[in-house]
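Title: Comparing notes on inverse folding

I've been comparing how different people in this forum approach sequence design from structure. To keep things fair, I'm posting one structure and asking everyone to reply with a full sequence. Here's the target:
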């Protein structure tokens, strides 16, 4: 017992003497010149430690240092690469022997990092080989089986990180970027317990400025493999020329769970707000495999995209600028290979460019570089749209296919709102299937191969009154040269139907057929989507009294087939009735009548013998 007693006394005495030496005699500032020289020798950089180092050893291991700078290579825009105003850290000593960590304070203030990159390949990291030397060791560690870190306890009195900034300059683009963590504060923290935290962050980019603030509660398990963030509230203000209307407010309230044992992350979106757009949702991520798997759902209320879309003049200017500067390039969709996704979306309504829709449902999956839109449905203009599609991004030039149908849609208000075209009215049934490759807009028109059918019931063609044109032409042939159209320019019909195919940007319609109580219209034609030119050669015939649609007291035409042409563009169509053909047809009709009358008279006379 005496031996143990005296042994303990000796150990404690040596420990006290060591502490006394370190705290009273040893001065770490004596080593500042050696540290500066070592950095200069290894990196060629200048390290300055202008403030005296101070430290404590008992009862807490603590260090305080500040006014530290590390230079950039000579000739760089920013002469200083790293500067720190002050660092303070204190850890209680005795609890460490029981695997307990007690940090009374941890403060970092005024950290500034300037990263410059030049055309010749030089950068602020030149000569800093420490990371490269540590690389093989880090690779070795990653190949080892993960081990669980266990602490009896971890207690932190508080963390404060203030005035931290990263500045980036690229000589090739001539642009600078700045990221600032104005402050991050963590309250009293212990493993397994909730701790309050808050942050304020800002970023200055070439065409955008961001200010972000957030707060929440953080909890870390004792094994350090599970993290929970409760009531995480984030508020972002974004401004700049690259933002729609040059300003946007985005806010989010979420609950986050991270389980590193099974490599899973889950986030419940209690509320998401992008200006006036509101949503809720959920995201689950499995990041344990090479390609992470994501399951997400979002539920929106009313969405008005008008303020997020570029103005038509701006869009034209940008399009002209792209055309003048460079040829359009295939969009890079290789990101489809970087994630496997299952995404469901619902929306109460979506409005864009005057088009109004409601009750949206969308189901999307992404796997191995292929996007499958299994269902997209919405209600619009008293009807419904249903679409499925597939986008294959496994090759440099993407390919796609789709199958769409609309039923019961009132086509006139849709065309008016979507394209300001007042051409056609009626309840529309439309089906189309198609496929193609390339996502460049002009190439989509050129490469798309499609076919489909359409039928419009109880509608009208606006901009032309075909029966009135026939009446006017007939009146002029009868000698009334002052005959002119006075009625509404509209041709009513009971049905308008046909099929179509599309190739090389041209839609071909071989069997257009229109029926009404007054006339029949049939024929074929095509629409060039690249030039928007219409070219239809049709034939119209009278099957009833023309007085049924604004007609006067003129005699009706029966059985006369008249060529009818549609030309011009989709926005400004032109309609023409071939009056010369009408005259020839009428002349032939009258000649046939005269021949029939002559035959009848001859038969009567011959019958008299």
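Reply #1:
Here's my take.
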């Amino acid at each position: 017992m005496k031996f143990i007693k005296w042994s303990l006394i000796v150990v404690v005495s040596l420990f006290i003497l060591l502490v006394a030496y370190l705290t009273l005699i040893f001065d770490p500032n004596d080593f500042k010149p050696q540290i500066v020289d070592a950095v200069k020798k290894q990196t060629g950089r200048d390290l300055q430690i202008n403030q005296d180092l101070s430290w404590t050893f008992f009862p807490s291991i603590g260090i305080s240092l500040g006014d530290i700078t590390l230079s950039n290579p000579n000739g760089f825009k920013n002469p200083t690469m790293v500067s720190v105003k002050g660092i303070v850290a204190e850890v209680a000593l005795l609890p460490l022997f029981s695997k307990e960590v007690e940090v009374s304070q941890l403060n970092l203030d005024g950290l500034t990092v300037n990263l410059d990159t030049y055309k010749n390949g030089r950068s602020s990291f030149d000569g800093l080989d420490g990371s490269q030397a540590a690389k093989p060791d880090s690779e070795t560690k990653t190949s080892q089986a993960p081990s669980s870190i266990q602490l009896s306890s971890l207690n932190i009195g508080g963390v404060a990180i203030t005035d931290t900034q990263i500045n980036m300059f690229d000589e090739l683009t001539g642009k600078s970027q700045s990221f600032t963590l104005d402050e991050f504060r963590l309250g009293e923290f212990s493993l397994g317990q909730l701790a309050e935290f808050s942050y304020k962050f800002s970023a200055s980019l070439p065409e955008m400025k961001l200010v972000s603030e957030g707060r929440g509660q953080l909890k870390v398990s004792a094994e350090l493999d599970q993290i929970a963030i409760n009531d995480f509230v984030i508020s972002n203000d974004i401004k700049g020329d690259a933002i729609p209307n040059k300003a946007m407010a985005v806010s989010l309230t979420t609950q986050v769970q991270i389980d590193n044992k099974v490599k899973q992350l889950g986030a419940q979106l209690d509320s998401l707000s992008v200006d006036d757009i509101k949503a809720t949702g959920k995201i689950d991520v499995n990041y344990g495999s090479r390609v992470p798997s994501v399951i997400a759902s979002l539920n929106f209320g009313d969405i008005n995209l008008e303020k997020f879309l570029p103005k038509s003049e701006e869009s034209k200017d940008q399009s002209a600028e792209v055309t003048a500067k460079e040829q359009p390039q295939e969009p890079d969709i290789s990101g489809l290979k970087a994630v496997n996704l299952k995404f469901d979306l619902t929306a109460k309504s979506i409005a864009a460019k005057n088009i109004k829709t409601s009750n949206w449902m969308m189901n999307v999956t992404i796997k191995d570089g292929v996007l499958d839109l299994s269902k997209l449905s919405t209600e619009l203009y008293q009807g419904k749209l249903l679409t499925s599609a597939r986008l294959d991004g496994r090759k440099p030039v993407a390919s796609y296919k789709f199958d769409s149908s609309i039923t019961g849609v009132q086509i006139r208000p849709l065309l008016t709102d979507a394209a300001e075209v007042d051409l056609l009215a009626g309840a529309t049934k439309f089906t189309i299937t198609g496929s193609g490759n390339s996502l460049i807009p002009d190439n989509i028109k050129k490469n798309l191969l499609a076919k489909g059918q359409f039928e419009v019931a109880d509608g009208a063609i606006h901009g032309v009154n075909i029966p009135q044109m026939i009446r006017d032409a007939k009146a002029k042939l009868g000698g009334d040269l002052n005959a002119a159209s006075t009625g509404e320019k509209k041709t009513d019909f009971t049905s308008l139907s046909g099929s179509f195919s599309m190739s090389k940007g041209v839609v071909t319609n071989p069997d257009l057929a229109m029926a009404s109580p007054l006339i029949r219209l049939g024929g074929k034609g095509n629409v060039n989507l690249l030039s928007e030119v219409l070219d239809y050669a049709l034939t119209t015939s009278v099957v009833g009294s023309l007085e049924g649609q604004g007609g006067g007291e003129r005699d009706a035409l029966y059985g006369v087939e008249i060529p009818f042409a549609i030309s011009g563009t989709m926005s400004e169509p032109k309609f023409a009735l071939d009056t010369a053909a009408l005259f020839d047809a009428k002349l032939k009709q009258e000649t046939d009548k005269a021949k029939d009358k002559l035959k009848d008279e001859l038969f009567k006379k011959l019958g008299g013998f």
